[in-house]
Specification:
This protein has one helix at residues 2-12, and strands at residues 20-31, 34-42. 22% of the residues lie in helices and 41% in strands. The protein has one domain. The protein starts with a helix and ends in a 9-residue tail after the last strand.
Length: 51
Amino acid sequence: MPKYSTAISRLYAHTLDGAHIVFGGLRQLLHDDGIETAVAIRKPGQAATAG
């Protein structure tokens, strides 16, 4: 859980020019040398798309 929380806090710390992070779409990919964490970024009023 600490690594998960650290990844989220690092993603959240970046300025996004009015956009926001959608943590519901958080994904983590396992690599040989570590874990890649990614989230969707949406601008205000932008609807989520299916898929």
